[in-house]
Amino acid sequence: MSDLSSLPILPQSVVEYEGTTYALMNLEGERMLVVAGQTAGFVGTPHDQPSALLCSLLAENADTLRQRLPWLQPVTLGLRTSAGMGDRLGFATPGHIQAIQGTGVAPIFAQQSVRENTRTGRTPQQVLDDAMWGAFEMGWREAWGADADHLKTLADIDPFVEAGYTFYTIDPGDYVDDDADTAPLERLREKVSALPWDELETTMQDTQVRYLTTVDLDGRPLPFDAQALYSAVAKYGAAIAHTARMARRLRELMGTRPFELEMSVDETGTTTRLQEHFYIVSELKRLGVPLVSMAPRFVGRFEKGVDYIGSLDELQRNLAGHAAIMRHFGNSYKLSLHTGSDKFDVYPPAMRYTQGLVHLKTAGTSYLEALRLLATVETDLFREILTFARERYEEDRKTYHVSASLDKVPASDELTDEQLPSLLEQFDARQVLHVTFGSALDRFGAALERALVRHREEYYAFIKRHFVRHLEPLRLQ
Ligand SMILES: O=C(O)[C@@H](O)[C@@H](O)[C@H](O)C(=O)CO
Prior knowledge:
GO molecular function, one term: metal ion binding
EC number: 5.1.2.7
Radius of gyration: 24 Å
Largest sheet: 8 strands, parallel, barrel
Pfam families: UxaE (PF16257)
CATH topology of the largest domain: TIM Barrel
Organism: Ktedonospora formicarum
Bound molecules: ligand LHC4WPEC
Cofactor: a divalent metal cation
């Protein structure tokens, strides 16, 4: 093992593997890779005493490193209780690791939606590389995943496959017909007749044979009368066909490489009825779609950055019903909680009813912790972001489920420095800051990144404290 102790090495990052020593060096917050031994394939500057190559965290160095150290490649996680910790800035993974290590919860460190990448300007490869560098920095050697989130079109898939993602969240929301939720039977028949039955590889007649019955869910009857069935088929039939289409494309691109697939309809305009959950999963299985998790639209409101909104009794009944359907299908997939951050009332019943078959999906909450840090140690920058967020909110909110009122978010000049951090505890301010991330990063991204470099360890501590609250309820008992 090469002695790198004369360099400002991060001790937890040091790896001796197959005769070469690898480590991350800390240069006033900036990171560099140090390789001592076999340096072929790395791009960097030779260093003497000790003899090593000093490498920037370039894409080619990330690729070479994960070829050398296989545990830095994302893998499928199967039915383990899991948590997706989206990171819009590329700095949060070490904090995520500090929170998740020892919990038994399987992490997805790389997770960004197409929507997020469009807003931040990052590529799927950059997101995965940032997560990998964070895992390397912390000496993480356990399994971790990479989620290509909210894929809507066939064209969305390719760059994530090229980058090496292992978890693919198919979002066929654009094909869900929410009007079917309340349409009369005659209108539903018309809608059903227009579905792509060739892609569904069946007919409505055969569909009626399969589903016009009452399903027994552990003694709990789930009735499918004509109205319920026609509504489910009209509402989700095209979405199921699109999911199967996306799965076929994914299988073509992935070849023999393993992957897992989630179907997410959490952002549609209407709640996913239990009959509809049953119909969706049954049809996806019939079509051979390899489902590892499913994200229905639950009762109540799952809004960004805040706890559940609605009747907890109704939610518990709803979760119990979804879990009964999962048991009917042999507990062969997980229930995915999108917009899952800060939903502290949801985790215990979700874990209880599904017996741990939960995937928790978070993202913007790590961005909010960065803003909490700024509100504490870089107040001028935070004030600029707050002012800009208040200007952008009405536009940026259009593609997210939020209900914050701008008039409840104080202007910067109404607050003392000491009051600024409390905004990150206030419902409306959290949502206004959350959904304006793209606009804010466009204008302040470089300044925010410099601040995070200056305050990395503090940021990790903010992330750890926040995610321990999320992960404790998911710990395997
Ligand atoms: O903000 C986004 O686009 C995504 O990170 C989220 O919608 C994600 O799918 C999620 O549900 C976690 O908040």
